[in-house]
Design a protein that fits this description.
alpha+beta, 3-stranded antiparallel β-sheet, 41% helix, globular
Amino acid sequence: MPKLPRVSGAEVVRALERLGFTQVRQSGSHVIMRRESKGCVVPLHSEVKVGTLAGVLRQAEVPREEFVQALRG
């Protein structure tokens, strides 16, 4: 299992969009994203902590490997 990289909130949003998620709405510095019945909340911080990123991926039910591939574009 690959380690999760240190990325910004905007990079997380971009990677999730590549995986088919869409931005539903934004509340302050948090973006709510959805794909079919799965959703997640992404904080738009300059650097998302690894534990927070792991929680986002768990909410979205996205495997780490798939997310890392989407980050690379």
